[in-house]
């Protein structure tokens, strides 16, 4: 591949094995971890708010002072939708995280990635998986109470 002057040009990225490029790689990896933690916080909030909405309105309907709701199941559907959005956000985040980690450890980035030959799993990945199971439990707990 040559440039407009006929001189050989580098590919899409030229990766030099220097301390600067290694520390840039590490900053990129930490940025990926921070992004994953932001996804975890967002998904936790969605799941928590969904479950809280269901609980709040269920207790409110049991109160003797509250009048009958026009759509009594609407809070349950809203809660289920929020919980499902939280679970979906986690699935997308984990998929994106795994794809990006594989990219950062593959091909021309391998010499600057580190001493290991393959990526090490981060605790945020395990926490994300556990949160998916918690979200599924909350979803089915609300759904089965509806039936």
Description:
It contains 4 helices and no strands. Helix 1 (19-62) runs parallel beside helix 4 (123-146). The protein has one domain. 17% of the residues are buried. Helix content is 71%, strand content 0%.
- Number of helical segments? 4
Radius of gyration of CA atoms, rounded to a whole number: 23 Å
Q: Which residues sit in consecutive blocks of at least 5 with pLDDT less than 50?
A: none
Class derived from helix and strand content = mainly alpha
Major β-sheet profile: none
The H-and-E topology, N to C, reads as HHHH
- The total strand number stands at 0
Mean of pLDDT: 81
Estimate the global geometry from the Cα principal axes.
Answer: rod-shaped
Which strand-content bin applies to the residues? under 5%
Approximate helicity band: over 70%
Kindly give the count of domains: 1
- The span between the termini is 64 Å
Briefly, what is this?
With 147 residues, the protein is mainly α. The protein contains four helices and no strands. The model has no long low-confidence stretch (mean pLDDT 81).
């Amino acid at each position: 591949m040559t440039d407009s002057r006929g001189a050989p040009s580098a590919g899409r990225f030229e990766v030099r094995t220097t301390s600067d490029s290694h520390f840039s790689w590490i900053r990129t990896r930490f940025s990926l971890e921070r992004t994953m933690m932001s996804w975890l916080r967002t998904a936790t909030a969605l799941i928590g708010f969904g479950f809280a909405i269901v609980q709040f309105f269920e207790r409110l309907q049991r109160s003797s002072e509250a009048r009958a709701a026009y759509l009594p199941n609407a809070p349950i559907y809203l809660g289920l939708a929020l919980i499902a959005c939280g679970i979906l956000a986690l699935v997308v985040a984990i998929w994106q995280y795994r794809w990006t980690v594989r990219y950062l450890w593959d091909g021309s980035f391998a010499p600057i990635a580190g001493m290991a030959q393959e990526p090490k799993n981060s605790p945020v990945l395990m926490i994300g998986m556990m949160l998916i199971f918690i979200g599924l439990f909350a979803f089915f707990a609300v759904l089965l109470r509806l039936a």
